[in-house]
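Dear Dr. H.,

I hope your travels went smoothly. While you were away I took the liberty of generating a structure for the chain from your last submission, since the lab meeting agenda had it listed for discussion. I wanted you to have the full record in hand beforehand rather than looking at slides cold. The sequence, exactly as received, is reproduced here:
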Amino acid sequence: MALNTLLTQQIKKIVEDRYDLGMFAGAEIIHGGTVNTSFQVRISGHKKRGRFFLREYNPAIRKQGIRFEHALLNHLRNSGFDLISVPMPARDGATFFPNPPSSPMTRNDTFWAMFDFLEGEDKYTWTDTHLTNREFASSASILARLHHHGALFVKPAHTDRAQPPIMHFLPILKRNFTVFAASMHNGQCTTLFKAHAHRIASILDGGIADRKRYQGMPKVPIHCDYHPGNLKFENEKGVGLFDFDWSKIDYRLFDVALALIYFTAQWQGAGAGSLRLRPFSLFLGTYRDACARLPMTPRELQALMPMLAFANLYVLNWSVTDFLEKEDAEDDEYYPFIRHGIRLMQWIEDNGKVLTEVIKDATA
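The corresponding predicted structure, in token form, is as follows:
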């Protein structure tokens, strides 16, 4: 999509004043993201490639988090994980910088960063999970490679993530859901949620009480948003992984559970609100086989069932908090997502024995 003249000139100034990449040749906005604003930038005269990825970070994202993301990306690239784009150093060596915002609705400067561009096709979204078997297997292998190459990452000083690890995040989820259940909204979203609020709180209370169960399990840098919409594909093979802005150091098991929720959830049709067992088995089995440096432990596999429940509520939290924060939030827009999360919560509980057998067979 073409940009207005003012924004085009702003991006041109960033390219030519801050970087030694060549002459600005044009830019288009990249649609699909819900947190940050992204642009494809075309540059003439560059030796290797003519396209780059320019990100304007959401004003709520702290600089310590951006430093963590950039340090992790550079570590992954340097360790041989070549499916990512890394931040390009500006003339002064910085990988991100404050700059006037692209939107007149934002008052203060925002942080911007330039990355090299990932080739491949954006085939899916986070709710479009009907990949081919080869794409499921490729995606699972990429996640295993990510954890393998990130295992030796050391978090630099003065870098951090605002969001705590999942087992420390459960109380925050409970608080968010309690606020939502007690809100004065009278639409179908809150009506549905209030009918299941007690069960949601019970699942979270169980996880909070059982937190010691997970101590000692492998912790690595996790993507924390690993879904089909954040991968690029070519010939049924994943060729690029992006959007590391929620990455953090956490239990590897949480990233696996979250990926299974994202990749195998059924959103439409007769099975809506369930996990598709064949893709689930394929993804988990492929991931397990691809864990070269750090094989999955029996403890992790035994704890996968409850972690699936937490991961589903983690995804549901995005819809709930977004609904609460938007003054003009529309019931019709958010209801399908909240309904999906609640249906899936019920399905996971009702099909515990079946899932346990699938997990056992996939990792035998």
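Two observations you may find useful: The mean pLDDT is 94. The chain has two domains: 5-116, 133-362.

With kind regards,
E. W.
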